[in-house]
Amino acid sequence: MISRGAAGDPALSRCVACGVDEFGSEYWGRAPLLSRAAELAGGFDDLLDPSAVDELISRRGLRTPFARMAKDGNVLPPSTYTRGGGAGAGVGDQMADDRVLALIADGATLVLQALHRTWPPLVAFATDLAGALGHPVQVNAYVTPRQNQGFAPHYDVHDVFVLQVAGRKRWTIHQPVIEAPLADQPWQTCREQVAARASEPALLDAVLEPGDALYLPRGTIHAASALGETSIHLTVGIHPVTRSQLVRQLMQAAQHDPQLRVSLPMGVDLADPDVLAPHVTETVAALVRCLDAADVTEIGRGVGDLLRRETRPEPLAPLAQLALAERLDGQSALRLRTGLRLRVDGEAGRVRLVLLGRTIELPAAADAAVKAVLTGDVITPAGLPGLDPGEQLTVARRLVREGVLVLA
Hints:
By secondary structure, the protein is of the alpha+beta class. It has three domains: about 10-240, Sandwich (Jelly Rolls); about 245-305, no CATH class; about 320-405, Outer Surface Protein A, domain 3 (Alpha-Beta Complex), CATH 3.90.930. The protein is about 35% helix and about 20% strand. The chain has 13 helices and 18 strands. Strands 1-11-8-13-7-6-2-3 form an eight-stranded antiparallel β-sheet. A three-stranded antiparallel β-sheet has the order 10-9-12, covered by helices on one side. Helix 8 (about 245-255) crosses helix 10 (about 295-310) and helix 11 runs antiparallel to helix 13 (about 390-400).
C-alpha cells in the first residue's frame, strides 16, 4: 500500500488544464498536452525561482551529478564548472559559482538535477505528484540564457511535464521514431532517425511563458530554445511502470516451474532449427501453462518492491522523530508518513511490515492497530484498537522511531 497524504490530486491538477480523469484516459502515455497559465491554478515560482537557483549554486554545496552544464547541444566537462570545496570539504567537484556565472554569460545552459531530493518545495511537490500518478517522479531544472538552445532535438525514455518558471522558451515537438521507448532504447541509439524526424514539420511549435505547462509522453522528440531573456523551466520526469515490468516479473515467476528448467538433450546440434523445433514447442506450451497460472499477488509484490526502490516518501527529520517518540502520550496526534510504500505480511503470532530494506515485526495483537494506521487517518496512541494503554504507547513509539508514523 501507499500513503497518499492529503485527499485529491493537487500536484497533478497544477500541471494539466483538463480534468485528471480526462488526462489519464486521453493523454497519459498517448499524446502531448499544452496547458496555458490562464487555464491553470497558478504559476510555478513557488516551486523554484531565480533566487532559489542562485542559492543552490552558491550556498548549498551542490556536487555533480546534481548539476551539469551544456552548450550548443553538447554536455560540458565537469572540470569547467566545478572545483574543490576548500578547507574541510574533502571533495573536488562542488559547483563553482564564478565558473557557472562565466559559462551562463557565455551562453551555456545550467541543469540542476534531482531537485526532488535537494530543494524542499520540490521535494514536497514530487512526493504529492508521485502519489497522484502512482509512478516514480524526478525533477530537474533548466536555466537557459537568452537566444540559446541547451540540447539538440532528442527524446526521453520517461514521460515529462515541462513547467515554465521564468522567461520564455520555444518548443518544437515531433512524433516519436520509437513508440514508448524503454530505458535501453535511448535517443543516442538512433541519432540519424531523430535528426531526420526533427527536420520534418513540427507536431507542435509553441512558446511557453511563465505558468505554462507541457506534457510529453516518452519518446516524443523535442527541442527548446530561450528567446529574449533567461529562461527557467522545470522538467518533471515520470518513470512509468510498464507492461515490460510485468513481463519481467512473470519471467521470474516462470523460473520456478520445473518444466522450464529441464536441460536440452545432449549429442545433438542445438543450433539446428529442426532439432530445436520440438523443444521450442514444448517450452512455449509449458510457459503458457505457467503464465495462465500466474499469481497476481506475487506479481504485485514484485511491482511493489520496484516502487519502494524508486519512490521516495516524505522526508523524515531524525532528531525531531526521536524527540517525538520520547514525549509521546496517549493523545499525541499522528499520521502515516506521506508517500510511504509498505506491505503487511501476517505470520503465526506476528505482524510484519515490509519497507525498503527492512522489516518491522510486531505481535499479532497489533494487527487491528496496524490496520488503523494504514487507513491514513489522523490517530492517537489511545485510539489504537486491540491493545491496552501500555501496548498502545509501545507500538506507537516503535512506529514513530521506524519512520512509519509522523506528527500530524
